[in-house]
Amino acid sequence: MSRPVIAIVNTWSDLSPCHAHLRERAEAVKRGILQAGGMPFELPAMSLGEVLVKPTTMLYRNFLAMEVEELLRSLPIDGAVLLGGCDKTVPGLLMGAFSANLPCIFVPAGPMLNDRYRGEKVGAGTHTRKFWDERQAGHLSGKEWIALESHMSRTPGTCNTMGTASTMTLIAEAMGLTLPNAASIPAMDSAHTRMASESGARIVEMVWEDLKPSSFFNEKSVLNGVIAYMAMGGSTNAAIHLIAIAGRGNVSLTLDDIQRLGKDVPVLANVLPSGSNLMEDFYYAGGLPALLRRIPDRLSLNSMTVNGRTLGDNLEGAHCEDDEVVRPLARPVSEAGALAVLRGNLAPAGAVIKPSGASGKFNKHSGRALVFDSMVDLNARINDPDLDVDENTVLVLRNGGPLGGPGMPEWGNLPIPKKLLEKGVRDMVRVSDARMSGTHYGTCVLHVAPEAAAGGPLALIRTGDVIELDVAAGRLDVQLSDEELEQRRAQRKPDVKKPPRGYTKLFLEHVTQANEGCDFDFLAGWHEPVEPTIY
Q1: Does the pLDDT value for residue 525 go beyond 90?
Q2: Looking at the structure, do residues 365 and 456 belong to the same domain, yes or no?
Q3: Where do the DSSP E strands lie in 111-225?
Q4: What's the per-residue H, E or C state across 259-323?
């Protein structure tokens, strides 16, 4: 054929409400491809809907990346349109496409629409946690809870807070991998269908231009992604995914780099959980272009994007329609920042916290540890009325990292004990080697590395040990001497588990730690296509 052959890599699934509309969007993409002179072929890929996959979608992010890479490498494909949006589909699709290094463009699934309940604006994710705490405290009836559920998630699309889904799609846009202002369009808005069709037309042009990721994705792209991440108060999960995506793009990125690049960038997007609005409001206010126009001096404006223009060109004419939703620099949502990196004898390789979503009173805190060895242990004890716990206790969950989960589940937002909820407590210091949903909030220290299952210091902590958190100083420590820690290490008996099989075995043998992006150790960097062997 003389036409470019375009793959539409679609993560649609009947069991993924975030992507329930992507079959229809694939048809819109096909129309754009055909009108531009290309030949579309839809290729299904693993759908990672956050709400139903067990034990965690994070276990399968690399699976999706490998599938995308091999789809594009093994079939006669000239370019690809990537359809996704729920948390792990964004990095999974981009990582695989980067490794295949064909012209590609990302089409975000888009956030679900807002709703209201008794005059209050409500959405999925953050509100779910807040209302559940009130239900646990006895302030909401079962009837009210069921009514709220029907309002919090009322259309297809991703969580409409600044959770991991919106964080990652907006980062993809900032790095130049989507059409301008694509990431914040609500899934059910007519503009979303038009964007999908326009993306289909653009990928055909990209093939003729040979505009592959390796020809424009670089350190400047990553810088723009990091700055956008900080300004929108994005999810802590993005720290892991950004490192992994950058690694596939041959860009070295560390936690310290993210903190350095994003230093002094205040949160300007007044969107839950750092703010008070939802993604539909962010779209009406002007979306990412309006946000980035607030901070042009922090960006690399000459960075190229998939539409063939620079980021600076794409921002021309952008303006904010609502200063309350996209705040000016002089009136930020929070100056605390979207991410702080912590180190100390409890996190030698680093841990993270989201200051803009935490209680300021805990920024410097010392408290007695209450240790849980697993989620099973936590669920069995957390609501025991005789649990020895108060507001100053530091809840510790271990064995939730990449190896311990396995797959690093979103267990880091440990629930507040019911006895404390009933007393009005709504936040505590919580420490874990797991992750936390980007829709959640609270003083949660996450991604402690090395994790407990890899022999990190978290494995040595006992209930009653005193843990110190100092966000300003970037410290996370336990009041134990090096000698005491080494003595406990010598006494530790590693947990012996049944050997896994299949993909989980591959994952456990090759996954890196959280501070390294949790990618497989054999997949980073650009790769030359492997020529097929004909027998």
Answers
A1: no
A2: yes
A3: 115-117, 120-122
A4: HHHCCCCCECECECCCCCECHHHHHHCCHHHHHHCCCHHHCCCCCECCCCCEHHHHHCCCCCCCC
